Amino acid sequence: MLEEFARAKVNLTLHITGQRENGYHMLDSLVMFASTGDILSFDHATDLSLRIDGPEARALPVENNSILSAAHNLDSTKGASIRLTKHLPVSSGIGGGSADAAAAYRGLSKLWNLPEPPLSQDFCARISRIGADVPVCVFSRTTRMSGIGERLEFLTHLPMLHAVLVNPRVAVSTQAVFKTVTNKSNPAMGELPSFFSGQASFISWLSQNRNDMQSAAMSLEPAISDTLNAISSSHACQLARMSGSGATCFGIYPDAGAAENAASQISGKHSDWWVQSCTLGA
Fold first, then answer.
1. Is 110 in the active site?
2. Residue 91 annotated as lining a ligand binding site
3. What domains are defined for the chain?
């Protein structure tokens, strides 16, 4: 049996820079991956099957699951028994479905003795049909992602961050958020400095950037504003922002202790929310 860890994807920045004639949105985003996520296991079988368990399993149907789409994309003739233990909230802006599909791609490639996924625009364009975040999640490395998600630039010089992820237990439709965004031709991030003296200088740079979906998501789901307020008012928070299309938001803290204390503070006030301290970029 093989196992793959499907790490949560966090968009530290997300700039919408245009929209193609086919409706796909052009993005420029700095992505890090968290130390929390889902777990997939794989075993040999004649037919392809998927079962789902875990604390977030009840919100996720087996039918039309992105994991099965990834399996068919890889090789529609082969079988496998796949188990997903679901820890990440569904439709939450941290790439849960995309991370699961990407982990399936990695795990099934090993199970079926296929070549490792290549870093090429052709490969990324092909698997982005499953979901725009699937290419970046396949590699699960700190990345500057652009185009419609098929252009990946791995970054190795950015500091690891201590963070808290918070979801107010509301699902947000990515399509609905995109439709609500009024300006879809915004400036890209600009040049990423080749050196940061430490976490403080990196966070200073991050604060000059943005998530262009945040205001639209807040207009659709006011709980996102409450979430950002809860994070930003927690002790030692250095930056609070929404990830992806929401509703999960993140806070960045100076060290692990501060992040753990903030998670405890936030969950104590909002016991019905999903709250998780973690590292980003580790």
1. no
2. yes
3. 2-154 (3.30.230.10), 161-280 (3.30.70.890)
94 appears as a binding residue in the annotation: yes
Q: Is 99 annotated as a binding residue?
A: yes
Question: DSSP for 191-240?
Answer: PPPS--SSHHHHHHHHHTS-BTTHHHHHHH-THHHHHHHHHHTSTT--EE
- The answer to whether residue 133 is catalytic is yes
Of 9, 28, 100, 212, the active-site residue reads 9
Q: Helix (H) and strand (E) counts for the chain?
A: 9, 10
What's the predicted TM-score (pTM) here? 0.96
- The single residue of 122, 133, 212, 255 carrying the catalytic annotation is 133
Q: Which of 54, 123, 67 is nearest to 99 (CA)?
A: 67
Per-10-residue mean pLDDT of the chain, 282 residues long, equals: 97 96 90 98 98 92 91 96 96 92 97 92 88 95 94 94 97 92 93 90 96 97 98 98 97 98 98 98 79
